[in-house]
Amino acid sequence: MDSESTGNGKENGKLVVKNQSSKFLKYSGLATQMLGTILLFTYGGYWLDNHQQNGVPVWTLILSLTSIAGSLYMLIRSFSKP
Predict the structure, then answer these.
(1) Higher pLDDT, 65 or 8
(2) What does the H/E/C string look like for the chain?
(3) Please, are residues 34 and 74 in contact by the beta-carbon 8 Å criterion?
(4) What is the reported pTM?
(5) pLDDT above 60: residue 14
(6) Over the chain, what is the mean pLDDT?
(7) Are 3 and 33 in contact (CB under 8 A)?
(8) How far is CA 10 from CA 3, 13, 19, 21, in A?
(9) Are 49 and 58 in contact (CB under 8 A)?
(10) 16 vs 27, 71, 79, 81, CA distance in Å?
């Protein structure tokens, strides 16, 4: 038996669990960042529309769609990184 295959079952199991929790933290952090960005930009657009007393919520639409596009860009960019 070579030294790599003996006694490494528990270490490999810990490595798998650590890798899974690392991925979970990475993607949950990314989801939180996306949600925060979308909410912040949408609220900013809502505030601008109320401040300017717009009849049509132009700023809310522009900023919310911009934040969604930016969040999707960040998501795609994070998947392309190793």
Answers:
(1) 65
(2) CCCCCCCCHHHHHHHHHHHHHHHHHHHHHHHHHHHHHHHHHHHHHHHHHHHHCCCCCHHHHHHHHHHHHHHHHHHHHHHHCC
(3) yes
(4) 0.71
(5) yes
(6) 84
(7) no
(8) 14, 5, 14, 16
(9) yes
(10) 17, 29, 20, 20
The answer to whether the CB of 43 falls within 8 A of the CB of 80 is no
Q: How far apart are CA 55 and CA 73, in angstroms?
A: 31
Q: What value does the mean pLDDT take over residues 29-52?
A: 95
Q: How far is CA 9 from the centre of its chain?
A: 33
**Crossing angle (nearest 10°) for helices 58-80 and 9-52:** 160
- Reference 45, options 69, 62, 67, 33; nearest CA is 62
Please say if the pLDDT value at position 65 is more than 60: yes
What pLDDT, on a 0 to 100 scale, did the predictor assign at position 22? 82
